[in-house]
Write a structure and sequence with these properties.
Length: 562
Amino acid sequence: MGGPWSLGLDFGTNSVRALIVDIHTGAEVGTAIWNYTHGEAGIILDRDRPHLARQHPEDYLTGIRQSITSALTQAAKTPGFSSKHIIGIGVDTTGSTPMPVDRQGQSLTSHLEFHNNPDAMAWLWKDHTSHAEAEEITALASRMRPHYLAKCGGRYSSEWFWAKILHCARTAPKVFAAAYSWVEIADWIPAILTGNTRPEQVTRGVCAAGHKAMFNPAWDGYPDEEFLKALHPDLPRLRPTLQSKAANVSQSVGGLNAEWAMKLGLPEGTPVAVGAFDAHLGAIGAGIGPGVLVKIMGTSTCDIMVSLSKENLADIPGLCGIVPESVLPDHFGLEAGQSAVGDIFNWVVNFTRGNADAISHESLTAAAEKLQPGESALLALDWHNGNRTVLVDQRLTGTIVGLSLHTTPAEVYRAMLEATAFGSRMIVERVEEYGVKVQRVVNCGGIATRNPLTMQIYADVFNRPVAVSRSTQTCALGAAIAGAVVAGKSRGGHANFADAISAMTGVQEKIFVPNPVRAAIYERLFALYRKLHDAFGIRGTCIDLSNVMKELLDIRDACRSN
Protein backbone atom coordinates (compact mmCIF):
# COMPACT_ATOMS: atom_id res chain seq x y z
CA MET A 1 0.00 0.00 0.00
CA GLY A 2 2.98 2.33 0.39
CA GLY A 3 3.66 5.09 2.86
CA PRO A 4 3.95 6.65 5.27
CA TRP A 5 4.69 9.88 3.41
CA SER A 6 6.48 13.13 4.11
CA LEU A 7 5.95 16.56 2.59
CA GLY A 8 8.61 18.91 1.28
CA LEU A 9 8.04 22.60 0.50
CA ASP A 10 10.54 24.29 -1.82
CA PHE A 11 10.27 28.09 -2.06
CA GLY A 12 12.27 29.10 -5.13
CA THR A 13 13.01 32.33 -6.94
CA ASN A 14 9.88 32.23 -9.11
CA SER A 15 7.57 29.66 -7.53
CA VAL A 16 6.85 27.31 -4.65
CA ARG A 17 6.80 23.55 -5.10
CA ALA A 18 5.19 20.92 -2.87
CA LEU A 19 6.35 17.30 -3.01
CA ILE A 20 4.87 14.25 -1.28
CA VAL A 21 7.26 11.31 -0.96
CA ASP A 22 7.06 7.71 0.22
CA ILE A 23 9.67 7.63 2.97
CA HIS A 24 10.64 4.00 2.35
CA THR A 25 11.07 4.05 -1.43
CA GLY A 26 11.52 7.71 -2.35
CA ALA A 27 8.56 7.42 -4.73
CA GLU A 28 7.19 10.89 -5.46
CA VAL A 29 3.44 10.47 -5.41
CA GLY A 30 2.28 14.06 -5.49
CA THR A 31 3.81 17.28 -6.73
CA ALA A 32 2.58 20.74 -7.59
CA ILE A 33 4.10 24.11 -8.51
CA TRP A 34 2.48 27.45 -7.88
CA ASN A 35 3.99 30.47 -9.61
CA TYR A 36 4.24 33.67 -7.61
CA THR A 37 1.90 36.37 -8.91
CA HIS A 38 3.57 39.61 -7.81
CA GLY A 39 6.14 41.43 -9.93
CA GLU A 40 7.89 39.87 -12.91
CA ALA A 41 7.89 36.09 -12.51
CA GLY A 42 7.50 36.64 -8.80
CA ILE A 43 10.27 39.21 -8.42
CA ILE A 44 9.64 42.86 -7.55
CA LEU A 45 12.01 44.96 -9.66
CA ASP A 46 12.72 48.68 -9.91
CA ARG A 47 13.95 50.28 -13.13
CA ASP A 48 15.69 53.05 -11.20
CA ARG A 49 17.39 50.56 -8.86
CA PRO A 50 18.68 47.81 -11.14
CA HIS A 51 20.22 45.80 -8.27
CA LEU A 52 16.88 45.55 -6.45
CA ALA A 53 15.05 42.19 -6.23
CA ARG A 54 12.27 41.66 -3.69
CA GLN A 55 9.37 39.25 -3.14
CA HIS A 56 5.92 39.87 -1.71
CA PRO A 57 5.24 37.73 1.39
CA GLU A 58 1.66 37.21 0.25
CA ASP A 59 3.04 34.92 -2.44
CA TYR A 60 4.58 32.66 0.20
CA LEU A 61 1.32 32.35 2.15
CA THR A 62 -0.82 31.77 -0.92
CA GLY A 63 1.79 29.40 -2.29
CA ILE A 64 1.69 27.18 0.79
CA ARG A 65 -2.01 26.52 0.37
CA GLN A 66 -2.12 26.31 -3.41
CA SER A 67 0.86 23.99 -3.81
CA ILE A 68 0.05 21.62 -0.96
CA THR A 69 -3.63 21.18 -1.76
CA SER A 70 -2.79 20.53 -5.43
CA ALA A 71 -0.08 18.02 -4.49
CA LEU A 72 -2.52 16.25 -2.15
CA THR A 73 -5.07 16.01 -4.97
CA GLN A 74 -2.48 14.33 -7.18
CA ALA A 75 -1.26 12.04 -4.40
CA ALA A 76 -4.83 10.91 -3.73
CA LYS A 77 -4.66 8.95 -7.01
CA THR A 78 -2.07 6.64 -5.41
CA PRO A 79 -3.73 3.52 -3.97
CA GLY A 80 -3.69 3.58 -0.19
CA PHE A 81 -2.65 7.21 0.10
CA SER A 82 -4.15 9.30 2.86
CA SER A 83 -3.18 12.77 3.98
CA LYS A 84 -3.56 11.42 7.53
CA HIS A 85 -0.38 9.41 6.94
CA ILE A 86 1.81 12.40 6.15
CA ILE A 87 4.12 12.24 9.13
CA GLY A 88 6.41 15.24 8.73
CA ILE A 89 6.98 18.50 6.86
CA GLY A 90 10.24 20.09 5.73
CA VAL A 91 10.84 23.54 4.28
CA ASP A 92 13.56 25.01 2.10
CA THR A 93 13.79 28.52 0.67
CA THR A 94 16.11 30.81 -1.21
CA GLY A 95 18.64 32.69 0.83
CA SER A 96 19.78 34.93 2.13
CA THR A 97 16.24 36.32 1.86
CA PRO A 98 15.57 38.27 5.07
CA MET A 99 12.34 40.13 5.79
CA PRO A 100 11.40 42.91 8.25
CA VAL A 101 8.66 41.86 10.68
CA ASP A 102 6.58 43.43 13.46
CA ARG A 103 6.40 42.36 17.12
CA GLN A 104 4.06 39.49 16.26
CA GLY A 105 6.43 38.28 13.55
CA GLN A 106 4.13 39.30 10.72
CA SER A 107 5.53 40.88 7.59
CA LEU A 108 5.42 44.68 7.55
CA THR A 109 3.49 44.37 4.27
CA SER A 110 0.52 43.22 6.38
CA HIS A 111 0.31 46.85 7.52
CA LEU A 112 -1.53 49.15 5.10
CA GLU A 113 1.25 51.74 5.26
CA PHE A 114 3.82 49.31 3.86
CA HIS A 115 1.69 46.94 1.80
CA ASN A 116 3.22 47.79 -1.57
CA ASN A 117 6.57 49.09 -0.34
CA PRO A 118 9.39 46.93 -1.78
CA ASP A 119 11.64 47.83 1.16
CA ALA A 120 9.11 46.20 3.53
CA MET A 121 9.04 42.96 1.51
CA ALA A 122 11.44 40.02 1.54
CA TRP A 123 14.85 41.01 0.23
CA LEU A 124 15.50 38.24 -2.27
CA TRP A 125 18.88 36.49 -2.40
CA LYS A 126 19.71 38.12 -5.73
CA ASP A 127 19.15 41.65 -4.42
CA HIS A 128 22.55 43.37 -4.66
CA THR A 129 21.57 46.88 -3.60
CA SER A 130 23.78 46.55 -0.53
CA HIS A 131 27.13 46.01 -2.24
CA ALA A 132 28.61 49.11 -0.56
CA GLU A 133 27.40 47.96 2.85
CA ALA A 134 28.94 44.52 2.27
CA GLU A 135 32.30 46.16 1.65
CA GLU A 136 31.85 48.24 4.79
CA ILE A 137 31.05 45.16 6.89
CA THR A 138 34.09 43.38 5.49
CA ALA A 139 36.36 46.32 6.28
CA LEU A 140 35.02 46.78 9.82
CA ALA A 141 35.15 43.07 10.64
CA SER A 142 38.72 42.83 9.37
CA ARG A 143 39.65 45.48 11.98
CA MET A 144 37.34 44.59 14.89
CA ARG A 145 36.31 40.95 14.49
CA PRO A 146 38.52 39.13 11.96
CA HIS A 147 37.27 35.78 13.30
CA TYR A 148 33.80 36.69 11.96
CA LEU A 149 35.21 36.86 8.43
CA ALA A 150 37.33 33.73 8.78
CA LYS A 151 34.21 31.58 9.00
CA CYS A 152 32.50 33.10 5.96
CA GLY A 153 35.30 33.00 3.43
CA GLY A 154 37.06 36.27 4.22
CA ARG A 155 34.54 38.68 2.68
CA TYR A 156 30.95 39.58 3.43
CA SER A 157 28.51 39.56 0.50
CA SER A 158 25.76 41.89 -0.62
CA GLU A 159 23.53 38.81 -0.91
CA TRP A 160 23.60 38.34 2.88
CA PHE A 161 21.58 39.21 5.97
CA TRP A 162 23.41 42.11 7.67
CA ALA A 163 24.33 43.93 4.47
CA LYS A 164 20.68 44.10 3.47
CA ILE A 165 19.52 45.25 6.89
CA LEU A 166 22.20 47.94 6.99
CA HIS A 167 21.21 49.14 3.52
CA CYS A 168 17.58 49.34 4.65
CA ALA A 169 18.60 51.42 7.67
CA ARG A 170 20.44 53.83 5.38
CA THR A 171 17.94 54.08 2.51
CA ALA A 172 14.52 53.24 4.00
CA PRO A 173 14.62 54.55 7.59
CA LYS A 174 10.82 54.36 8.06
CA VAL A 175 10.80 50.67 7.24
CA PHE A 176 13.83 50.04 9.41
CA ALA A 177 12.27 51.91 12.33
CA ALA A 178 9.00 49.97 11.98
CA ALA A 179 10.76 46.59 11.92
CA TYR A 180 10.86 44.94 15.35
CA SER A 181 13.18 42.29 13.91
CA TRP A 182 14.28 40.61 10.69
CA VAL A 183 13.70 36.96 9.87
CA GLU A 184 14.99 34.79 7.07
CA ILE A 185 12.06 33.30 5.17
CA ALA A 186 13.71 29.90 5.74
CA ASP A 187 12.84 30.49 9.41
CA TRP A 188 9.62 32.42 8.83
CA ILE A 189 7.74 29.77 6.83
CA PRO A 190 8.10 27.04 9.52
CA ALA A 191 7.17 29.65 12.14
CA ILE A 192 4.00 30.50 10.21
CA LEU A 193 3.01 26.84 9.88
CA THR A 194 3.42 26.23 13.61
CA GLY A 195 2.16 29.57 14.89
CA ASN A 196 5.43 30.44 16.64
CA THR A 197 6.01 33.73 14.85
CA ARG A 198 7.01 36.14 17.60
CA PRO A 199 10.65 36.97 16.83
CA GLU A 200 11.86 35.86 20.26
CA GLN A 201 10.15 32.48 19.68
CA VAL A 202 11.21 31.89 16.07
CA THR A 203 13.60 28.97 15.76
CA ARG A 204 16.56 30.29 13.81
CA GLY A 205 18.14 27.69 11.57
CA VAL A 206 21.91 27.36 11.71
CA CYS A 207 22.01 27.07 7.93
CA ALA A 208 20.85 30.64 7.30
CA ALA A 209 22.39 32.10 10.44
CA GLY A 210 25.80 30.49 10.02
CA HIS A 211 26.34 31.00 6.31
CA LYS A 212 24.81 34.46 5.89
CA ALA A 213 24.51 36.23 9.26
CA MET A 214 27.91 35.69 10.93
CA PHE A 215 26.40 33.32 13.50
CA ASN A 216 28.73 30.95 15.33
CA PRO A 217 28.46 29.28 18.76
CA ALA A 218 32.11 30.23 19.40
CA TRP A 219 31.08 33.88 19.92
CA ASP A 220 27.62 33.35 21.43
CA GLY A 221 25.69 33.37 18.20
CA TYR A 222 25.16 36.51 16.14
CA PRO A 223 27.58 39.48 16.04
CA ASP A 224 27.84 41.36 19.33
CA GLU A 225 26.22 44.74 19.99
CA GLU A 226 29.51 46.63 19.98
CA PHE A 227 30.24 45.48 16.44
CA LEU A 228 26.69 46.20 15.27
CA LYS A 229 26.77 49.68 16.82
CA ALA A 230 29.99 50.44 14.96
CA LEU A 231 28.10 49.68 11.74
CA HIS A 232 25.00 51.72 12.62
CA PRO A 233 23.89 53.18 15.97
CA ASP A 234 20.41 51.60 15.70
CA LEU A 235 21.45 48.06 14.75
CA PRO A 236 22.04 46.87 18.36
CA ARG A 237 18.31 47.08 19.12
CA LEU A 238 17.80 44.06 16.85
CA ARG A 239 20.28 41.87 18.70
CA PRO A 240 17.96 40.91 21.63
CA THR A 241 15.39 39.59 19.11
CA LEU A 242 17.95 37.14 17.71
CA GLN A 243 18.55 34.03 19.78
CA SER A 244 22.02 32.95 20.82
CA LYS A 245 21.32 29.39 19.71
CA ALA A 246 20.39 27.99 16.32
CA ALA A 247 18.99 24.61 15.32
CA ASN A 248 19.73 22.10 12.55
CA VAL A 249 17.24 20.37 10.25
CA SER A 250 17.05 17.23 12.39
CA GLN A 251 15.10 19.29 14.91
CA SER A 252 11.44 20.29 14.88
CA VAL A 253 10.17 23.85 15.34
CA GLY A 254 6.82 22.48 16.52
CA GLY A 255 3.66 20.92 15.18
CA LEU A 256 1.38 22.14 12.41
CA ASN A 257 -1.12 24.43 14.11
CA ALA A 258 -4.89 24.08 13.93
CA GLU A 259 -5.37 26.96 11.48
CA TRP A 260 -3.02 25.58 8.85
CA ALA A 261 -4.08 21.99 9.47
CA MET A 262 -7.63 22.97 8.58
CA LYS A 263 -6.56 25.00 5.53
CA LEU A 264 -4.40 22.20 4.16
CA GLY A 265 -6.28 19.09 5.21
CA LEU A 266 -3.29 17.72 7.13
CA PRO A 267 -3.15 16.32 10.68
CA GLU A 268 -2.79 18.95 13.38
CA GLY A 269 0.49 18.54 15.22
CA THR A 270 2.41 17.12 12.24
CA PRO A 271 6.05 17.96 13.08
CA VAL A 272 7.67 20.71 11.00
CA ALA A 273 11.43 20.62 10.57
CA VAL A 274 13.76 23.58 11.05
CA GLY A 275 14.01 25.45 7.76
CA ALA A 276 17.12 25.63 5.60
CA PHE A 277 18.24 27.00 2.26
CA ASP A 278 17.27 25.20 -0.93
CA ALA A 279 20.84 24.23 -1.84
CA HIS A 280 21.55 22.63 1.53
CA LEU A 281 18.42 20.51 1.52
CA GLY A 282 18.95 19.90 -2.19
CA ALA A 283 22.31 18.40 -1.29
CA ILE A 284 20.53 16.04 1.10
CA GLY A 285 18.06 15.15 -1.65
CA ALA A 286 20.99 14.34 -3.94
CA GLY A 287 22.61 11.99 -1.44
CA ILE A 288 25.27 14.20 0.14
CA GLY A 289 28.06 12.62 2.21
CA PRO A 290 31.75 13.23 2.90
CA GLY A 291 33.73 13.54 -0.34
CA VAL A 292 30.62 14.27 -2.43
CA LEU A 293 30.26 17.64 -4.17
CA VAL A 294 26.61 18.38 -4.92
CA LYS A 295 25.93 21.12 -7.45
CA ILE A 296 22.40 22.51 -7.36
CA MET A 297 22.07 24.09 -10.79
CA GLY A 298 19.34 26.63 -11.47
CA THR A 299 19.22 30.37 -12.09
CA SER A 300 22.37 30.39 -9.98
CA THR A 301 24.41 27.47 -8.68
CA CYS A 302 25.19 26.42 -5.13
CA ASP A 303 27.94 23.92 -4.42
CA ILE A 304 27.62 21.97 -1.18
CA MET A 305 29.98 19.58 0.61
CA VAL A 306 30.08 18.14 4.11
CA SER A 307 32.89 16.98 6.36
CA LEU A 308 32.68 15.12 9.66
CA SER A 309 32.71 17.47 12.66
CA LYS A 310 35.62 15.58 14.23
CA GLU A 311 37.86 16.58 11.31
CA ASN A 312 39.95 19.70 11.68
CA LEU A 313 39.05 21.93 8.71
CA ALA A 314 41.00 25.00 7.69
CA ASP A 315 39.16 28.23 6.99
CA ILE A 316 38.81 28.41 3.20
CA PRO A 317 38.98 31.90 1.62
CA GLY A 318 36.14 32.70 -0.74
CA LEU A 319 33.64 30.14 0.51
CA CYS A 320 30.20 31.15 1.77
CA GLY A 321 31.11 29.68 5.11
CA ILE A 322 32.08 26.49 6.89
CA VAL A 323 29.25 26.04 9.38
CA PRO A 324 28.70 23.29 11.95
CA GLU A 325 25.56 21.24 11.11
CA SER A 326 24.28 23.58 8.41
CA VAL A 327 23.58 20.56 6.17
CA LEU A 328 23.76 17.40 8.28
CA PRO A 329 24.07 16.87 12.04
CA ASP A 330 27.60 16.07 13.20
CA HIS A 331 29.09 17.47 9.98
CA PHE A 332 30.48 20.79 8.86
CA GLY A 333 28.59 22.24 5.91
CA LEU A 334 30.65 23.92 3.17
CA GLU A 335 28.90 26.25 0.74
CA ALA A 336 30.14 27.88 -2.44
CA GLY A 337 28.50 28.80 -5.73
CA GLN A 338 28.04 31.02 -8.75
CA SER A 339 25.71 34.01 -8.80
CA ALA A 340 24.39 33.20 -12.26
CA VAL A 341 24.30 30.04 -14.37
CA GLY A 342 20.85 29.38 -15.81
CA ASP A 343 20.33 33.14 -15.87
CA ILE A 344 23.35 33.44 -18.19
CA PHE A 345 22.01 30.80 -20.56
CA ASN A 346 18.65 32.63 -20.59
CA TRP A 347 20.46 35.88 -21.32
CA VAL A 348 22.10 34.41 -24.42
CA VAL A 349 18.75 33.14 -25.72
CA ASN A 350 16.98 36.43 -25.08
CA PHE A 351 19.86 38.52 -26.40
CA THR A 352 20.16 36.61 -29.67
CA ARG A 353 16.49 35.87 -30.27
CA GLY A 354 15.19 39.24 -31.36
CA ASN A 355 12.17 38.41 -33.49
CA ALA A 356 13.50 34.98 -34.45
CA ASP A 357 11.18 32.58 -32.65
CA ALA A 358 13.34 29.69 -33.84
CA ILE A 359 16.05 30.70 -31.37
CA SER A 360 15.64 28.72 -28.14
CA HIS A 361 17.64 26.80 -25.59
CA GLU A 362 16.93 23.66 -27.59
CA SER A 363 18.05 25.07 -30.94
CA LEU A 364 21.19 26.67 -29.51
CA THR A 365 22.06 23.51 -27.58
CA ALA A 366 21.68 21.39 -30.71
CA ALA A 367 23.96 23.73 -32.67
CA ALA A 368 26.47 24.03 -29.82
CA GLU A 369 26.67 20.26 -29.54
CA LYS A 370 28.14 20.10 -33.04
CA LEU A 371 31.05 22.31 -32.00
CA GLN A 372 34.31 21.03 -30.59
CA PRO A 373 36.02 22.59 -27.55
CA GLY A 374 38.07 25.55 -28.72
CA GLU A 375 36.56 25.59 -32.21
CA SER A 376 35.01 29.04 -31.78
CA ALA A 377 38.11 30.74 -30.26
CA LEU A 378 35.79 32.20 -27.61
CA LEU A 379 36.40 32.40 -23.88
CA ALA A 380 33.97 33.96 -21.39
CA LEU A 381 33.83 34.98 -17.74
CA ASP A 382 30.63 33.89 -15.98
CA TRP A 383 30.15 37.02 -13.88
CA HIS A 384 26.97 38.45 -15.37
CA ASN A 385 25.52 38.68 -11.85
CA GLY A 386 28.80 39.12 -10.02
CA ASN A 387 31.05 36.46 -8.51
CA ARG A 388 29.84 34.53 -5.47
CA THR A 389 32.84 32.19 -5.08
CA VAL A 390 35.81 32.42 -4.83
CA LEU A 391 36.16 36.18 -5.33
CA VAL A 392 32.96 37.25 -3.50
CA ASP A 393 32.51 40.41 -5.54
CA GLN A 394 29.09 41.35 -6.89
CA ARG A 395 30.48 44.29 -8.88
CA LEU A 396 32.31 42.05 -11.32
CA THR A 397 30.68 41.67 -14.72
CA GLY A 398 30.71 39.20 -17.58
CA THR A 399 33.18 39.18 -20.45
CA ILE A 400 33.56 37.44 -23.82
CA VAL A 401 36.99 37.33 -25.44
CA GLY A 402 37.61 36.29 -29.03
CA LEU A 403 34.57 37.67 -30.84
CA SER A 404 34.86 38.07 -34.60
CA LEU A 405 32.61 38.91 -37.53
CA HIS A 406 32.05 35.19 -37.96
CA THR A 407 30.93 34.44 -34.38
CA THR A 408 27.55 32.70 -34.19
CA PRO A 409 24.93 32.60 -31.42
CA ALA A 410 25.60 28.88 -30.91
CA GLU A 411 29.30 29.60 -30.36
CA VAL A 412 28.44 32.24 -27.76
CA TYR A 413 26.01 29.83 -26.11
CA ARG A 414 28.62 27.08 -25.86
CA ALA A 415 31.20 29.56 -24.57
CA MET A 416 28.80 30.42 -21.74
CA LEU A 417 28.23 26.76 -20.90
CA GLU A 418 31.99 26.33 -20.76
CA ALA A 419 32.47 29.51 -18.70
CA THR A 420 30.14 28.28 -15.97
CA ALA A 421 32.03 24.97 -15.94
CA PHE A 422 35.35 26.81 -15.63
CA GLY A 423 33.94 28.92 -12.79
CA SER A 424 32.80 25.76 -11.07
CA ARG A 425 36.24 24.21 -11.45
CA MET A 426 37.73 27.24 -9.68
CA ILE A 427 35.59 26.27 -6.69
CA VAL A 428 36.66 22.62 -6.85
CA GLU A 429 40.32 23.60 -6.96
CA ARG A 430 39.91 26.02 -4.05
CA VAL A 431 38.38 23.47 -1.67
CA GLU A 432 40.92 20.81 -2.68
CA GLU A 433 43.74 23.30 -2.15
CA TYR A 434 42.67 23.44 1.50
CA GLY A 435 42.48 19.69 1.97
CA VAL A 436 38.82 18.90 1.18
CA LYS A 437 38.93 16.19 -1.49
CA VAL A 438 36.18 15.96 -4.09
CA GLN A 439 35.75 12.23 -4.71
CA ARG A 440 32.40 12.36 -6.47
CA VAL A 441 30.30 15.00 -8.25
CA VAL A 442 26.49 14.86 -8.30
CA ASN A 443 24.62 17.54 -10.22
CA CYS A 444 20.93 18.27 -9.78
CA GLY A 445 18.31 20.78 -10.79
CA GLY A 446 16.62 21.55 -14.07
CA ILE A 447 19.81 22.13 -16.05
CA ALA A 448 21.31 18.84 -14.87
CA THR A 449 18.28 16.80 -15.85
CA ARG A 450 17.42 18.53 -19.13
CA ASN A 451 20.74 19.38 -20.76
CA PRO A 452 23.15 16.47 -21.25
CA LEU A 453 25.53 18.66 -23.29
CA THR A 454 26.14 20.85 -20.26
CA MET A 455 26.76 17.81 -18.07
CA GLN A 456 29.28 16.42 -20.57
CA ILE A 457 31.09 19.76 -20.72
CA TYR A 458 31.31 19.79 -16.92
CA ALA A 459 32.71 16.25 -16.89
CA ASP A 460 35.30 17.19 -19.53
CA VAL A 461 36.28 20.44 -17.78
CA PHE A 462 36.51 18.71 -14.38
CA ASN A 463 38.18 15.68 -16.01
CA ARG A 464 36.21 13.46 -13.68
CA PRO A 465 32.84 11.63 -13.86
CA VAL A 466 29.64 13.55 -13.19
CA ALA A 467 26.44 11.91 -11.95
CA VAL A 468 22.93 13.39 -12.02
CA SER A 469 20.47 13.05 -9.16
CA ARG A 470 17.60 10.63 -9.76
CA SER A 471 15.01 13.13 -8.57
CA THR A 472 14.23 16.19 -10.64
CA GLN A 473 13.14 17.95 -7.45
CA THR A 474 16.06 17.44 -5.12
CA CYS A 475 15.47 20.54 -2.99
CA ALA A 476 11.87 19.58 -2.25
CA LEU A 477 12.99 15.96 -1.78
CA GLY A 478 15.63 17.08 0.74
CA ALA A 479 12.93 19.02 2.60
CA ALA A 480 10.73 15.91 2.62
CA ILE A 481 13.67 13.88 3.99
CA ALA A 482 13.99 16.40 6.83
CA GLY A 483 10.26 15.91 7.46
CA ALA A 484 10.76 12.13 7.61
CA VAL A 485 13.61 12.53 10.10
CA VAL A 486 11.85 14.95 12.47
CA ALA A 487 8.86 12.59 12.49
CA GLY A 488 11.18 10.01 14.06
CA LYS A 489 10.76 6.28 14.52
CA SER A 490 7.80 6.75 16.85
CA ARG A 491 5.71 8.14 13.96
CA GLY A 492 7.06 5.65 11.43
CA GLY A 493 9.79 7.98 10.15
CA HIS A 494 13.56 7.59 9.93
CA ALA A 495 15.88 7.60 12.91
CA ASN A 496 18.58 9.64 11.15
CA PHE A 497 19.58 11.22 7.85
CA ALA A 498 21.86 8.35 6.84
CA ASP A 499 18.90 5.95 6.83
CA ALA A 500 16.60 8.46 5.11
CA ILE A 501 19.13 9.32 2.40
CA SER A 502 19.78 5.62 1.73
CA ALA A 503 16.07 4.90 1.36
CA MET A 504 14.89 8.00 -0.49
CA THR A 505 17.67 9.15 -2.87
CA GLY A 506 19.69 7.88 -5.83
CA VAL A 507 21.34 8.91 -9.10
CA GLN A 508 20.42 8.32 -12.73
CA GLU A 509 21.87 5.34 -14.52
CA LYS A 510 23.82 7.43 -17.02
CA ILE A 511 27.14 8.77 -15.71
CA PHE A 512 28.92 11.45 -17.76
CA VAL A 513 32.51 10.30 -18.25
CA PRO A 514 35.21 12.74 -19.43
CA ASN A 515 36.47 12.46 -23.00
CA PRO A 516 40.31 12.50 -22.76
CA VAL A 517 40.79 14.48 -26.00
CA ARG A 518 38.30 17.16 -25.04
CA ALA A 519 39.57 17.24 -21.47
CA ALA A 520 43.08 18.01 -22.76
CA ILE A 521 41.78 20.96 -24.79
CA TYR A 522 39.84 22.23 -21.82
CA GLU A 523 43.04 22.15 -19.75
CA ARG A 524 44.49 24.74 -22.13
CA LEU A 525 41.31 26.80 -22.13
CA PHE A 526 41.01 26.67 -18.37
CA ALA A 527 44.54 28.02 -17.99
CA LEU A 528 43.47 31.03 -20.07
CA TYR A 529 40.23 31.35 -18.09
CA ARG A 530 42.27 31.47 -14.89
CA LYS A 531 44.36 34.29 -16.35
CA LEU A 532 41.23 36.34 -17.10
CA HIS A 533 39.73 35.40 -13.74
CA ASP A 534 42.74 36.63 -11.79
CA ALA A 535 43.46 39.66 -13.96
CA PHE A 536 39.93 41.07 -13.71
CA GLY A 537 38.98 39.68 -10.33
CA ILE A 538 41.94 39.98 -7.96
CA ARG A 539 42.89 43.48 -6.89
CA GLY A 540 46.49 44.48 -7.33
CA THR A 541 47.17 41.70 -9.80
CA CYS A 542 49.28 42.47 -12.85
CA ILE A 543 48.88 39.74 -15.48
CA ASP A 544 49.90 40.00 -19.12
CA LEU A 545 46.82 39.17 -21.22
CA SER A 546 48.36 39.97 -24.59
CA ASN A 547 48.64 36.32 -25.57
CA VAL A 548 45.09 35.25 -24.65
CA MET A 549 43.39 36.05 -27.97
CA LYS A 550 46.25 34.63 -30.01
CA GLU A 551 46.36 31.39 -28.00
CA LEU A 552 42.61 31.03 -28.46
CA LEU A 553 43.20 31.28 -32.21
CA ASP A 554 45.96 28.68 -31.98
CA ILE A 555 43.61 26.30 -30.16
CA ARG A 556 40.93 26.97 -32.78
CA ASP A 557 43.30 26.29 -35.68
CA ALA A 558 44.56 23.05 -34.13
CA CYS A 559 40.98 21.94 -33.55
CA ARG A 560 39.92 22.64 -37.15
CA SER A 561 42.96 20.94 -38.65
CA ASN A 562 42.11 17.62 -36.94
